[in-house]
């Protein structure tokens, strides 16, 4: 790459055309759009906005969630007190030691209906116990001890290990309009990202056009500088011959040599600028910086022609400019933010339903099994007092909306000014091109007449150099006027938002 650049800088020549890539303005635009990294960023932002819009739509739908938990506690819940736990397993022994005396004790320790229940399960009554023999009493005592122990065991909850789970469905009914506002915000955001991508696209095309026509301008000026150098070199050769023949002075020769040096320096500057401009173009198109490219308009005789006078069309700019659409979207987005904030001060209603399970369960005594139940309900939230928090936020949001409106109005005024300026600039560029084209004919005739008079010996070398300088200026002005016509047209299209 360095070697090739050095060759161009030193000798002012490019690679052979056969080895170069030919590019038109349309192909340059297409390549710039594909290579531009910000266009890729804009595309990703559009995808993000689309997904956010789809996410906002889900807020209308019921949401289902599941929750499971396990908890270990250091102590368990007990339905019997310590006295009951100690007494019930020895209920039979106590009765054998003195049934009548202890019955009152057991009756106070345990409700009478529980004792009747235990005796009834064996087909006995309390008054029948006094008729038992000693052996029968011992047998009965053992049975009663077992029943008391089984009762204590049955009422052992073992709640230190607790398992619970639930599946819940929530269907929003009214959330103060916040869901509607959020969906509108998602739609507006998606539109804004599309407008942002369009603004980036037009900016990319605008920059590509400017670089393209800059390269074309420098290429034409390179040929012009080379042509001017050839003229002054020929004049220098003729003057040196005249000096040798004694019909011209050494001063005339030195003056011409100064012009030759100036022409060589001008050509070198143009060559340097052309190399740098092509490097910028390659970077814009995503090509290697040392890529040899040839533009389709480099060899055209006329870069631009005089266009018809453009009509002032501010309405088109207001309708098409993506920057205005972005600001309009910002205003609408700010209004929806206000609606979301206002929703926090309104009632909210939602339907709920679900299924819950626990272990241990309480639906058939205490069981170490998973058992559950269905549930449905309505949740209503009504804000009562928040010290004006929502009101202040709504006022602040309305202030932001006012700012967005003012910025939108200012942007419209600036765009109107921009359209007027660019329309005026196109008209002026057309006038300058017309004048530059008319000057070309006079400069060509002036140079032809000066050369003819110099050959006849009636005109001095200084006059010829003046004619050559005037010809160079006329040609350079024509190139500048043509490029100015092209760039002013691009500026007008961009200000109208119709750059395609």
Structure description:
The protein is an alpha+beta fold and 500 residues long. Helices cover 67% and strands 11% of the residues. The protein is built from 14 helices and six strands. It has helices at 2-11, 25-35, 37-57, 82-87, 91-97, 99-109, 112-121, 134-154, 178-245, 250-285, 314-320, 322-343, 389-456, 461-496; strands at residues 21-23, 63-72, 161-174, 293-295, 348-359, 371-381. The chain has a four-stranded antiparallel sheet with strand order 2-3-5-6, with no helix packed on it. Helix 1 (2-11) packs antiparallel against helix 10 and helix 5 (91-97) packs antiparallel against helix 8 (134-154). The radius of gyration is 49 Å and the shape is rod-shaped. The two termini are 34 Å apart.
